[in-house]
Design goal:
Elements lengths: L7 H6 L1 E2 L2 E2 L3 E5 L5 E6 L4 E2 L5 E2 L1 H4 L8 E10 L5 E9 L6 H14 L8 E4 L14 H11 L5
Parallel strand pairs: 8-9
Antiparallel strand pairs: 1-2, 3-4, 5-6, 7-8
């Protein structure tokens, strides 16, 4: 909490009803146990204004063809987010066409509000934090930078 040291305004803004506002999403069960289910800043806001959290959609996109995968947002043409499935193939021998076909099948079987719009094949592992969490935002930002029309 270094950012709040000797800063009472920042400290007060960081708390709500006695709880530290971490940016995490979660719920408390009937027994009082707290379950963290995701991060608010990873929300994907589509063109219709509907909000989807990656953790909601990811269970519908698992496949043995993927060694790793995650859902993130890429910049849409009108300032909206395009939900995107980032995939690291289980083997370099797997054809992109096979991955695309698998993506389309998984997408068709997902609930309509959780249907991802794009598919991206990655050559290397997903970027992760020291604790092993996927860095969705940095993945999306680096992909957008590398694939912008000015490059």
């Amino acid at each position: 909490m270094r950012a709040y040291y000797k800063n009472p305004e920042a400290t007060a803004a960081a708390f709500e009803e006695g709880w530290l506002k971490t940016g995490d999403r979660g719920h408390m069960d009937a027994a009082g146990f707290l379950f963290v289910t995701g991060r608010f800043k990873e929300a994907i806001v589509g063109a219709t204004g509907e909000t989807v959290y990656p953790e909601e959609a990811e269970p519908y996109y698992a496949s043995p063809l993927f060694s790793e995968f995650c859902i993130g947002a890429l910049a849409g043409p009108h300032g909206n987010d395009l939900s995107t499935l980032f995939v690291v193939p289980a083997s370099s021998d797997i054809r992109t066409e096979d991955l695309q076909e698998t993506f389309e099948s998984l997408r068709a079987n997902a609930p309509s509000r959780l249907r991802v719009q794009r598919f991206v094949r990655l050559a290397g592992p997903l970027p992760r934090t020291p604790t092993g969490k996927v860095r969705r935002r940095s993945l999306s930002e680096s992909w957008d930078r590398a694939n912008s029309p000015s490059n």
